Amino acid sequence: MKEMKEEINQRLLELCQPLKEGKVKDAMIYSLLAPGKRLRPMLFLTVLKSYQLDYRFYMDVACAIEMIHTYSLIHDDLPGMDNDDLRRGRKTCHKQFDEATAILAGDALLNLGVNVILQTTLNDSLKVQLTNLLYQASGVNGMIYGQQQDLYFENHQASLEELQDIHYHKTGDLISVSLQMAACIANKDDLKHWKQLGYDLGLAFQIQDDILDVTSTTEQLGKMVGSDIENHKSTYVTLLGIEASQKKVDELFEKCYERIYAMQINHGLILELLVKILKRVS
After folding, report:
1. In the predicted model, what is the mean pLDDT of the chain?
2. What Rg, from alpha-carbon coordinates, does the chain have?
3. Using alpha carbons only, what angle is made at residue 43 by residues 39 and 45, rounded to the nearest 5 degrees?
4. Nearest alpha carbon to residue 207 among 179, 157, 172, 176
5. Going by fewer Cβ within 10 Å, which terminus of the chain is more open, N or C?
6. Per-residue model confidence (pLDDT) at position 89
């Protein structure tokens, strides 16, 4: 896992090198190479590996996924959104540079992601399919819709159903599509399993964040804790409490394990990654 993460980081840097010099390029690299988990590209690559494919051949697709995720974080941290000062253990992009540069860096990563996929040596049909999946999941009916609802419910009380809808799109869509894209390459017959597994994992991941926001420290998380409370956001913890929220996380991971064992793959590879996610403290 560590080797794969290092390979992702190295390729992200290489893909940015041909870009025109300036603050926007600097901001893109600053945000991309911040010490993040690389969860989404690693899920994508690990699924491919579990089907005994050479994951390195698809490294640029994995990097495109990370570019889209990083763009969303840059914009999510902006003063007009969550107005955060800290991300991945360092200053947020707009704090390190300035707001205009951060907006442009996010825009540039959004555009670069699609170009990276289109410039691969994959066949044209697969390029279109992967790009369509990724941009549908991150667009106005996907991740952006989730962000919209998240902002709306800063000042409105959300029900459990409404909260789940936010998480389904803001977090789940990009995690699920990472698995779906891998399935499209490796085995389309398993697509439905990976799609639902991704949404279960995305919801579990977000509930974990809700728990960590009240049980962890800023140093551990690499971002400000207690921000959900300050922004008056409804979370699983505020609606259900910590114990019931953790029980929900455990139930969702059990569903993920069941779906993994329903497929003819190298179960150990993806299970290893899921266990690391389950036991995460940041």
Report:
1. 94
2. 18
3. 120
4. 172
5. N
6. 85
- Amino acid at site 251: E
CA 258 from chain center: how many Å? 22
**What is the Cα–Cα distance from 282 to 280, expressed in whole angstroms?**
6
Contact criterion met (CB below 8 Å) for 178 and 205:
no
- Rounded Cα distance between 19 and 75, Å, is 21
| Tokens of residue 131, six digits | 């790009």
**Structural domain boundaries of the chain?**
2-278
Tokens of 197: 């597994």
174 token code pair: 């990009």
Single-letter amino acid code for the residue at 24: V
In angstroms, rounded to a whole number, what is the distance separating the alpha carbons of residues 259 and 45?
A: 18
The tens digit of pLDDT for each residue in 32-41 reads 999 989 999 9
Q: How far is residue 32's CA from residue 16's CA, in Å, rounded to a whole number?
A: 10
Torsion of CA 145, 147, 152, 154, to 10 degrees: 160
CB 210 within 8 A of CB 221: no
CA distances for 162 relative to 62, 100, 165, angstroms = 31, 32, 5
Domain 2-278 has CATH 3.30.70.100: no
Those residues whose C-beta lies under 8 Å from the C-beta of residue 207, and which sit 6 or more positions away, are 167, 236, 245, 248, 249, 252
Reported as a single tens digit per residue, the pLDDT across 118-162 is 999 999 999 999 999 999 999 999 999 999 999 999 888 999 999
CB 134 within 8 A of CB 117: yes
Length of the chain: 282
In the three-class reduction of DSSP (H, G, I as helix; E, B as strand; rest coil), residue 87 is classed as strand
Instruction: Show the CA angle centred on residue 38, arms to residues 35 and 41, nearest 5°.
Output: 155
